[in-house]
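Worked example 2:
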Amino acid sequence: MFNNFKQAFERKITLAPKEHQTQDEISALRDNMERVSFIINIRWILVLVLVTYSIVGFAIHLSKNDFSTLVGYMSVPANALILVCVYNYFFMLNKDTLANLAVANNVQLALDCIVVSILVYFSGGVESWFWVIYLLIIFEFVTITPRKNSVWWLSLGIIIVLGLIEWGNFFGWLPYVTVPLSTSHGWELPEYVSIRYLWQVAVIVGTTLISTQLITQFKRSLAQSRNVAIIDDLTGLYTRTYFKRTLEVESLRALYDNRALYVALIDIDDFAKINKYFGIPIGDALLLKISEAVSTAVNKFSKGEQSPNIVARVSGEEFAVFIVENAHAHDGQPTEEDVLLLARTICRAIAEISHNGITVTSSIGVAGVPQDALDSEVLLERADEALIGAIQAGGNTVKSFADCIDESAPFIDEIFDEPIENISRYLDE
């Protein structure tokens, strides 16, 4: 019961649990790591802008105020910026780990809101210019959360905090902080505070509405582009969608022309452990090297990149190759022996890959048209069965669909060696 509670809690606070990550979870985590890195970099830029503004503003104020007075005014905002630098540096050092914690993103956001609230309060409250930074925080949050409702809750929180500061000054709940060069007493006038606050609320709500609509449209367009994409972003290989579409056409053409066509499915053994123990960036680096090794082997087999033979990345750590041409054969057609030899070459090339001392192995399943299947869907199923056989054999090996059938033959022979009256027990099973 405790383990179930622990797993449920882990799934609640993390984007992708460490154990048994699916490819969708890995992709979501990779995307979030990129978003968190983007936000960290944007925060450094914002700090630089604020520091520059503070230095220039300090110099301007110095012409009308003495140095010690200005230092007193600037001490709290300066400490707030130092706090930003400290926690942003911490997130930068630990971004790969913290990107998996959903609560970490919320902590970043809460700290940003606290700092901006401090800047607003100590720079004149209702007359402060710093409240516009809240709008940047809204845009920041839109990029790291998949839920629009969360953005609206953030906007409501900002509106409440801003109202507490400005109306707190008016009602005397918070002492008003006088700022240099400010001669207005608008914070004492209910009409001024009301008009100013309503304008701020309108801008915050408008920013939230526009940003959520824009990000929704962007995500929809991104999803559509991924569905029709033919090139994988990470490896530069063809995508699963393109591979399946092309395989369907080529398999029909092969049957019509009475030619052979083969598919090899390649799975990296225990690759989830690489992501778990070494991190997704290391896993991505290995996948890139693997894709290069597979492409190199197929290009040598094909004698050129213009060959109709195709290499694709069909899932996170799974690759696929279909072979319709053997440039080394006199008739240009591949045989099963040729493709199995290529598969073993790929298997050996992957085993020789090393990144930061980390090595991997692969399992490969091979099936062909017309001997194993007569259409692309069945062909992929047969290749997948061969791949399962290679994995069950311990990995770092190659199996054809025919091998799997041959291995099941002793069991079939055993059935038919039984007396007739005992065969029914196999049917019952």
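The first helix runs from residue 2 to 13. The two ends are 34 Å apart (CA to CA).
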